[in-house]
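About this split. The held-out portion is used to measure sequence recovery: a designer receives only the structure tokens and must propose an amino acid at every position. Recovery is the fraction of positions where the proposal matches the reference. Here is one held-out target exactly as it appears in the evaluation file.
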């Protein structure tokens, strides 16, 4: 039995704020910025505010360079905030020590766009999934790690018989499932998906989105979902933040943003997207399971 289920949480949506980002500012050193000649323009994130509740999926959209990845990387501790607060379960994590950050890594995981680049090519799938347990040995006892890794493979739709295979022996969609299994290994509460399905074919995208949606229900996971693909965002997100020049210019449900965008930038961003919107044909709200299943 998959041990992750021991931390399975009640699926009732509670409006407890899991992550609270307040007035976040992040800059890159001026010498490393491609904008270095424009003095004062090295601020990638200027003033970002939002919250994510347990079990909620919040989308982050915006053009290239708007600061989406910087927000994600700062939340996970890969970049340092210049100002503002990032509260996780009520604790400001911008001031965390290394030890506190290590503990936080259990609760927050990231799934990247390119699973091939983010998976160690020299490790088998089983070793990739087991790796986080080496840093957090209390999560799964040593003698159960092989079987738990296989159980996780099974849960994300990978054949456990392939546990000794290497990343290059899998397709793009399967590799992304390996990345998701690794992210789940530490039983996180929040998963940040940075363009996690962008490199996949449309049908494989749908399968991975369905998997993420199923896992969300099962483990009451919250997602911060970054994507340039607004139809993906529309299908998976409860709320969407529109980022422009390092500032959140608008926030709402996907329906609100598609039907009645207020900000000019949002209007331009959303107007160009040809997507099927079932509620325009009389449905009262976004129906569940609108992601096509293959
Ligand atoms: N390591 C870095 N060093 C210097 N500047 C950076 C670095 N990473 C990002 N930037 C700059 O910060 C700004 C925001 O970049 P970021 O990658 O967060 O945007 P994004 O919205 O995620 O873009 P994309 O969709 O293309 O990934 C950009 O102006 C970018 O050039």
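Reference sequence for scoring:
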């Amino acid at each position: 039995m998959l041990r992750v289920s021991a931390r399975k949480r009640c699926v009732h949506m509670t409006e407890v704020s899991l992550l609270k980002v307040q007035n976040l500012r992040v800059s890159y050193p001026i010498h490393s910025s491609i904008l270095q000649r424009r003095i004062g323009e090295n601020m990638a994130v200027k003033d970002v505010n939002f919250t994510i509740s347990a079990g909620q999926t919040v989308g982050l959209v915006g053009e290239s360079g708007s600061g989406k990845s910087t927000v994600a990387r700062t939340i996970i501790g890969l970049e340092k905030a210049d100002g503002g607060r990032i509260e996780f379960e009520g604790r400001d994590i911008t001031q965390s020590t290394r030890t506190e950050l290590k503990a936080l890594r259990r609760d927050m995981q990231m799934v990247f766009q390119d699973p091939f680049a983010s998976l160690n090519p020299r490790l088998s799938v089983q070793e990739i999934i087991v790796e986080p347990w080496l840093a957090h040995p209390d999560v799964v006892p040593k003698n159960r790690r092989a079987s738990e890794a296989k159980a996780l493979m099974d849960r994300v739709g990978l054949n456990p018989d392939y546990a000794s295979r290497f990343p290059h022996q899998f397709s793009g969609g399967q590799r992304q499932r390996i990345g998701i299994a690794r992210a789940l290994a530490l039983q996180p509460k929040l998963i940040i998906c940075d363009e996690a399905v962008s490199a996949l074919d449309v049908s494989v995208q749908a399968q991975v989105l369905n998997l993420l949606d199923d896992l969300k229900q099962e483990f009451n996971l919250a997602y911060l979902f970054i994507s340039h693909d607004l139809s993906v965002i529309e299908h998976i997100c409860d709320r969407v933040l529109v980022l422009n020049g390092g500032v959140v210019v608008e926030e709402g449900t996907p329906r609100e943003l598609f039907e009645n965008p207020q900000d000019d930038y949002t209007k331009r961003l959303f107007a160009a997207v040809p997507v099927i919107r079932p509620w325009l044909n009389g449905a009262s709200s976004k129906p569940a399971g609108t992601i096509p299943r293959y």
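Annotator remark: The longest helix spans residues 202-219.
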